[in-house]
Amino acid sequence: MEQSRKRGKGRRRSYGENRLLIALRKEQNWTQTEVASRLSISQSKLSRIELNIDLPSLEVEQKLTQLYKVPSETLFPQLHMSR
């Protein structure tokens, strides 16, 4: 059974920072502000996604996979783990 993909407002338990997401951004020499602008979200929201405090919406998840050319399963394995 697939793990619940609950999204939206509210605090989430942090699983530590998403090092891959941060590394991909830094590899392009992009700031959080630049990436957030490309995703049409705030810099603080991107920071919370990178720190695994918030999960991205489906729309933001899709934009990130397109931006970095990396599958969602690789960027966000916690969304695709089986119980």
TrEMBL record:
Coiled coil: none annotated. Residues 21-75 form the HTH cro/C1-type domain. It comes from Shouchella xiaoxiensis. This is Transcriptional regulator with XRE-family HTH domain.
